[in-house]
Design a protein that fits this description.
Layout: H1 7-11, E1 55-57, H2 58-64, H3 70-78, E2 82-84, E3 87-88, E4 95-97, E5 102-104, E6 107-108, E7 116-121, E8 151-152, E9 161-167, H4 170-177, E10 185-191, H5 197-205, E11 207-209, E12 212-214, E13 218-223, E14 226-234, H6 241-248, E15 253-261, E16 264-265, E17 274-276, H7 279-286
Parallel strand pairs: 9-15
Antiparallel strand pairs: 1-4, 2-3, 2-5, 5-6, 7-9, 7-17, 8-9, 10-14, 10-15, 11-12, 13-14, 15-16
Helix pairs in contact: 2-3
Length: 291
């Protein structure tokens, strides 16, 4: 891998999102950006979903309920872990209706409407649905987004800010978090001291951490005159991977902001606020077109 020395070529992939709320090139302030969470969004603001017929295949019913993907649902059915109206069903291709009592682990499933919420996470919020030890979680920021039970796609550690997608779509969640999908993520990194150009090259070529080799897909300085601000593109979802890459070379990451995720940017989403994905964004995301 080669380091992307063309800053404009690197940044044009996410131009328009302000790159970082703290960076010098941020082209919009929170005061001038629409505040999406202060107005009460009504149901019509959610992208319209296609109407589903009364009957559907059991694996789709399970997937729509947010349990897992359709393929994994087939495995649950074959293992006899799904009941319909009190009876174990193991035959693939079984169809059910919304009136049927479909259960997994004795919990009734609900193939509810899918919701997709894009949050610009602030620091000091834990990425979890529930944590009795955490004072604040990302769910506190989206508690009025919908009636459905949504959950984060992947994780951002407590001190990391930026883009986080929340949904109740189990199949899409698995797609975006599976290594084969290679969902691109771009981070704005702030280090405790200037980073040598040779170290950027080293990160592009690849290093080996305790859990295996890793390399940046693209990396460059955000500001030519400020060597402590780095833009890095990566697809790995390994724990604290960006921080560990810089720590390996002797740098401490003092701020870390995810500015791009699978084709989505922070444009018009101030820190701590959220918006719904458009129907077009959802379609492209599912088709793997937003990378």
């Amino acid at each position: 891998m080669r380091r992307d020395n063309n800053k404009r070529g690197f940044k044009k992939r996410f131009e328009g999102d302000g790159f970082s709320d703290q960076g010098k090139r941020s082209n919009q302030s929170e005061e001038s950006t629409p505040d999406f969470s202060r107005k009460k969004l009504v149901k019509k603001d959610i992208p319209e979903q296609k109407t589903v017929s009364d009957k559907m295949r059991l694996n789709k019913y399970i997937s729509n309920s947010g349990v897992c993907s359709r393929r994994d649902a087939d495995n649950l059915i074959k293992k006899g872990e799904i009941t319909v109206n009190g009876k174990v069903v193991t035959e693939l291709g079984t169809t059910v209706s919304f009136k049927d009592d479909v259960r997994y682990k004795d919990q009734r499933l609900n193939p509810e409407e899918k919701v997709y919420v894009l949050l610009n996470k602030p620091k000091d919020y834990v990425t979890t649905v529930e944590d009795k030890h955490a004072k604040r979680t990302v769910m506190d920021l989206v508690d009025d987004a919908c009636d459905q039970r949504i959950y984060p796609v992947g994780r951002l550690d407590k001190q990391t800010t930026g883009l986080l997608l929340l949904t109740n779509d189990g199949e899409l969640t698995k797609q975006l978090t599976h290594p084969k999908y290679r969902a691109k993520k771009i981070y704005h990194v702030f280090t405790d001291k200037p980073v040598f150009a040779s170290h950027l090259d080293q990160l592009a070529q690849g290093i080996t951490l305790e859990d295996g080799p890793i390399h940046a897909d693209a990396i460059s300085y955000v500001e030519k005159e400020d060597k402590t601000q780095i833009g890095i593109e990566i697809h790995s979802g390994r724990n604290r991977i960006v921080r560990r890459m810089f720590e390996y070379l002797g740098y401490k990451v003092v701020k870390l902001d995810r500015v791009y995720f699978a084709g989505l940017t922070k444009k018009n989403v101030p820190r701590g606020k959220w918006r719904y994905l458009s129907a077009k964004e959802v379609t492209r995301l599912k088709a793997g077109m937003l990378k």
